[in-house]
Amino acid sequence: MRYAKIVLLLLCLTLHGTAAAVVAGGMVAIDRTWPSKPGGYLDMDFSIAITQEPGYNGRTYWAHQFALKNGDGGYVGLQQRSNADKALNFSIWQATGWVAESGTLCSHFSHEGSGVQCWVAYPWVQGKKYKIRIVSEAPGSWSAYITDVASGARRKVASIQVPQAWGGLNEKTVEFLENFAQGADQLESCAAAPATSAVFFRPSAENGTVAPSTSTSKTYGNCESIARASCTSEQDCIAADNKFGTLGSPKVLLNSYSGYCLDTLAGGTQAGLWSCASNNNQLIERDDGFRMLMRSRSQCLQAESDGSVRLAACGNGSAQRWMPMPGSDGLYNVASGTCLDPLNNAAQGAYLRVYTCLGNGYQQWRLNP
């Protein structure tokens, strides 16, 4: 796959660079296989939520890579660029032309192969879910769209033209997390890479009617040691770097607004708020898959389908994945796409639920020693 070629190129750059610097490059890959489709798929939808943005000069790419039958491939995804710039990037190798929408810039490229690249400034927001759609709207033409899932606001980015002999999207796709700082912008070390995390939700094809057959995650590259990746049984996959769990160091989860801590309320399964006591009803460890483990790691915090939050036997479901969101201090639940929230004005004894992420004081949490 092309991301492997990119890793090799970045490794070569690193070896010829200064000894004190590193090109992090790709760190996480999500490999997906799809049901057989002889002519290829004519559309795919990829959804993503960036749960920790890398910040100023983040130089990070969350990409969805695809290939076209009898042709080459490309990728599309969100970026944090230099300074505070945010963008959506859409590229296809060996493409022949383009039609750019208003505000989109397109050009031919000749690095790492040749083709067409289109990009548009796009001020994506941490904790929001976005759907990126790739669709063939005419023979030899592939278009990219992005939708803010909460608001429904949809924007067409561009159409890129390819040889008409090329077929549809093939049955293997890859999503990856990459830090693309190079040259004078190289990182001093892998530890200096800005911490970031994102959820690559299960994609779909044929207008949402076809799902991948398998999804597997892996870490790789120069900075593999700082990368974390996992896929749930629902095929929602997490990619992160410099974002580690707390196994071996149990903590309490403090609600900043009330000063109370998450508690299993008299040793039951319903999660609520109670005076902080650092006992067995409150001590939590977070693993590298972003599960919140309690009671000697036998049970995990889980968002239920009715919005309540309870303890359940630890498993591999998206409902047990909680992504910390620095800045807002929210805890984003992967299954629901909502945040941990207390009822009853966060009073002592209040039950916890998941609710629309608001970034307010009620939804601010921190793990305390």
Overview of this protein structure:
The protein folds into 2 domains: 240 residues, Jelly Rolls; 117 residues, Trefoil (Acidic Fibroblast Growth Factor, subunit A) (Trefoil). Strand 26 and strand 27 form a beta hairpin. The N terminus is likely disordered. The protein is mainly beta and 369 residues long. Strands 2, 6, 9, 10, 11, 13, 14, 16 and 17 form a 9-stranded antiparallel β-sheet that branches. An 8-stranded antiparallel β-sheet has the order 7-8-5-4-3-12-1-15, with helices on one face. A 4-stranded antiparallel β-sheet has the order 21-22-23-24, with no helix packed on it. The chain has 1 helix and 29 strands.
Structural class: mainly beta
What is the alpha-carbon Rg in Å? 21 Å
Give the count of helical stretches.
1
At CATH level 2, the architecture of the largest domain is Sandwich
CATH topology of the largest domain: Jelly Rolls
Listing every helix as H and every strand as E from the N terminus to the C terminus, the arrangement reads: HEEEEEEEEEEEEEEEEEEEEEEEEEEEEE
Number of strands: 29
% residues in beta strands: 35-45%
Shape: elongated
CATH class of the largest domain: Mainly Beta
Largest sheet: 9 strands, antiparallel
Termini separation comes to 44 Å
Q: How confident overall, as mean pLDDT?
A: 94
Helical content, roughly? under 10%
Can you tell me the residue ranges where pLDDT is under 50 for at least 5 consecutive residues? 3-19
